[in-house]
């Protein structure tokens, strides 16, 4: 193996020689666990140098140092910035496709089943493998060994799901299509889209599953027998920061322009814009039709009960009820939120459809119906009789529409339950501290992502934080989400008073830092045992003003420092999510090392 040059030492030397102030900034990690990449950048005398990406933090630092040296000594900064986007994407050859596929199955609650066979070859039997993902079978592939066939088959599924190949082009017996249509089909991952309606994967990041709006438009146009084309509007920006603009034309009607960093992203965004306009239009048409008919005479078929089997009433919030359901065809369980439709609720769904992150409850789709859904709570424990007690119903006002939001199903216990359980335990132990640090890190990752998309959650609290199948944190309830535009006037006192920042209670101008204040309180609650409500009521006002129980400050010195900064009265003094994430990551590492050495000492 070739030895790697120690660029970090070299850059240090360079900085010392030239009396420059050198530091590194950790920029976070990206990608699923099996294929994580880390990023760091060098900052020299306040100037940022191109980020370095690597499979470990150390590699990333080395790469960052190398990049800075190339800028400083060879003047090659431009090339590096242009390549930065590529470098941050994990190389496909590094991906363990079987592992990726298993994670994909877990995330989407699809069973993954390899089907291994042999087929006669010229000399001996050749191993073949294909995968069943949910109820869809992917094409079979051969390999020199059974393992190789399995890996190749998993890679094929990866390619198809990522839109690198269509199922048609991947099929052994199929010849390639040509022209515009085949190009569109490969973007749409058409086969998958028609089975699951809207699941595809962002080709850049296999950990994120996005709604395929081009697929939905394709579906819609086939159903309505209309044609669509993407219109190339313009391209802006410098070569390293290109912005593409596309819009959709459906039967000569033009829809709003969508933009993106690639043509594909811009087309998806245009399809998303068109999809929302179509939804709004169809709701308006239905309303006009009802008004025209004088009354809502025809009973409407409920898409909800047609597609899903309601299994359980999970709870009720301000917007409506949430049900655990099973998709009748896919046999996958989801959560569906049902409430009365208001213009504003559609805006919220629009925001939600923009968020795809491991630590955020995954949104699948939404639709509107004339009928709502009622579950008689008295009998909800009686599964067999749900039909007689749960029913679709129309509202008293015939103009009322109901909005259904299909989401990922999370575990029943929320973070509130987790905290309550921990508070029942007798001792304040180090296991709670360790778990709390993991949970806090995941919450802050989700919040960092929400903020990066220019949204403010505004209602972060333990009941709105749920857990996924692997116990990972899932931030939910985006009922109060709003955009973080600088000059927007805000509604005063939206959210839950207990976790609300001072400025959110009283001021019309506040920003994303209100979420950081709530995070401070949640971190405190994660760590500190509060046995009774009265104990909590006694210390809570103090904690909100950065006054902590003495024992807390002694036991959790580092955590207290982070929480203290999050609870700063002035929003500008609160750190942003990425800074807290970095601090927590660093502290977690130190804490684990300290714990390991303590354990070692005990055994010696
Ligand atoms: N995706 C989901 N998976 C599982 N349970 C869910 C899901 N979304 C919501 N729930 C549960 O459904 C219940 C109602 O949730 P919802 O988000 O509507 O309201 P809430 O958070 O209780 O109140 P509000 O919206 O008024 O703040 C809660 O108990 C919540 O834990």
From TrEMBL:
Any one cellular-component term (Gene Ontology): nucleus
Domain DRBM intervals: 6-74, 212-280
Residues annotated for ATP binding in this entry: 337
Class in the EC hierarchy, top level: transferase
Matches recorded under InterPro entries: CC_SR_Kinase, dsRBD_dom, EIF2AK2_DSRM_1, Kinase-like_dom_sf, Prot_kinase_dom, Protein_kinase_ATP_BS
Entry superkingdom: Eukaryota
Gene3D superfamilies linked: 3.30.160.20, Phosphorylase Kinase, domain 1, Transferase(Phosphotransferase) domain 1
Start and end residues of each Protein kinase domain: 308-588
UniProt GO molecular function: ATP binding; double-stranded RNA binding; eukaryotic translation initiation factor 2alpha kinase activity
Protein known as: non-specific serine/threonine protein kinase
